[in-house]
Amino acid sequence: MQIYYTPGHSLGSICYYDPIKKVLIPGDLIFTGGSFGRYDFPGGSLNMLINSI
Fold it and tell me: Hey, how many other C-beta atoms are within 10 angstroms of the C-beta on 43?
């Protein structure tokens, strides 16, 4: 399991990736249909969120 720092939604956002199964667990960063999580939390940033994705 690999952990990736993915700021933007919040400063502490992370995603988990299993390279063997090729599965990404993005938490509430990415949603069905291509939308993504909120970025209006303290420390959140639309630019950081887009760069993280």
Answer: 13
